[in-house]
Amino acid sequence: MWLDANDWLESEALNIMTDEIVKHPDTAYLFPDYCLTDKAGKRTKVISAIEMFPGQDPTSAPPHGACTMVDVQNMLAAGLYNETLQRGNGIDLYYKMHTKGKVIHLPFLKFN
């Protein structure tokens, strides 16, 4: 899982995400929606993948990145990161992983 220094998860997020990967062993990766917060840590807005890609299945495009859990075997099968890219290597990896397994969006789960 990628988790940036300024992000935090709901207390049960890892358990929920791990359970989903165990239930669906063909999963390449899964991701939650995310929230914006104020300086005190209070949620001010939920950003849904459905809002980010209106009219599309949110699993048809790469996720936002942070708090995305990947299956290591599928990541290895996809060929890992393209180290020649100066930017966007995560997007490149997600596109490659789309062909290696199922993508799951967990809209009920949030990270900040």
Give a short synopsis of this structure.
The protein is an alpha+beta fold and 112 residues long. 29% of the residues lie in helices and 25% in strands.
How far apart lie the N and C ends? 15 Å
How many distinct beta strands? 4
Number of structural units classed as domains:
1
Uncertain residue segments: none
**Helical segment tally?**
4
Spell out the CATH superfamily.
Answer: Spore Coat Polysaccharide Biosynthesis Protein SpsA, Chain A
SSE string: HEEHEHHE
The rounded Rg comes to 14 Å
From the structure above, extract its key features.
4-stranded mixed sheet, 112 residues, alpha+beta, single chain, 4 helices
What can you tell me about this protein's structure?
With 112 residues, the protein is α+β, with helices and mostly antiparallel strands. The chain has a single domain (13-111), classed as Spore Coat Polysaccharide Biosynthesis Protein SpsA, Chain A, CATH 3.90.550.10. Helices cover 29% and strands 25% of the residues. Strands 1, 2, 3 and 4 form a four-stranded mixed beta sheet that branches. The longest helix is centred in the first third of the chain and has 11 residues, at 13-23. The mean pLDDT is 80.
Task: Explain the layout of strands and helices.
Elements: H1 13-23, E1 27-37, E2 43-47, H2 49-52, E3 69-70, H3 72-78, H4 89-98, E4 102-111
